[in-house]
Amino acid sequence: MILIARDKTKPLEKLRWSKAGLKLLDGAVSAAPQDGMIRILRGKAAYKLPEKHFHRAHTAIEDYTFLIEREMHKEGFLENEIYLQLVYELGEVYCRIGQNQSAAMCWKRLMNQTLDPDFLHLLKLKLKNLEGKPAVEHIPNTESITSILIRRTVTAAGNALQSWAEEQKK
C-alpha cells in the first residue's frame, strides 16, 4: 500500500494509501514484534516518509534500534551492507528530529566499521555539519496552520468513513 501511495499523483490518495499501509505494518509488528523482516519493512517505510506529515521518526528509531541490537547479539542476522545502512539511516533520523548527539554516535560508530573511503568522507561531512550544534535541538514544525487543519480534517473524515464502512459490513 505504501508503494502504491508513492506512485499516486493526488496528495489525499497518497495520504490515504500511506496511512493504510502503516496501519497494516503497525499491526504486523504488534502481532510479531520479534520478526526482523517486518521491522525492516516498517522501519524503512517510516524512514522514507516525510516527518512533518507522518511523524514516524520514532517508529524508524524503534525498528532500526531493534534490528541493530539484534545484529549485535546475533551476528549474521543482517548482511554487513544492510547493517551499515541501518546505522547510517538511524543517524539521519536522529539528525532530522534534532537529536544531534545520537546522530553523531551512529556516524562515529560507522567510522570504526568501514574502510570505504567515499563512505568515510560522507561520515566526516555529516559529523562536521553537527559541530557546534547542541546535543538536542528543537526542530520547528514548518507545517502551515492550513496544512495542519487539512490533515486533521482528512484524518477525522477518514476515521468516520472507516467506522461507517465497518458498520455497513455488519
Walk me through what this model shows.
The structure is a single chain. With 170 residues, the chain is mainly α. The chain has two domains: 2-142, Alpha Horseshoe (Serine Threonine Protein Phosphatase 5, Tetratricopeptide repeat); 143-170. It is built from nine helices and no strands. Helix 5 runs antiparallel to helix 6 (80-96), helix 6 packs antiparallel against helix 7 and helix 7 runs antiparallel to helix 8.
**Order of SSEs:** HHHHHHHHH
Please state the oligomeric state of the protein chains shown.
Answer: single chain
Could you tell me the mean pLDDT?
A: 89
How would you describe the shape? globular
Number of helices: 9
| CATH class designation of the largest domain | Mainly Alpha
Structure summarized in a few sentences:
The protein is mostly helical and 170 residues long.
Summarize the SSE layout with pairings:
Layout: H1 2-7, H2 11-31, H3 36-48, H4 51-54, H5 57-73, H6 80-96, H7 100-111, H8 117-130, H9 145-169
Helix pairs in contact: 2-3, 3-5, 5-6, 6-7, 7-8
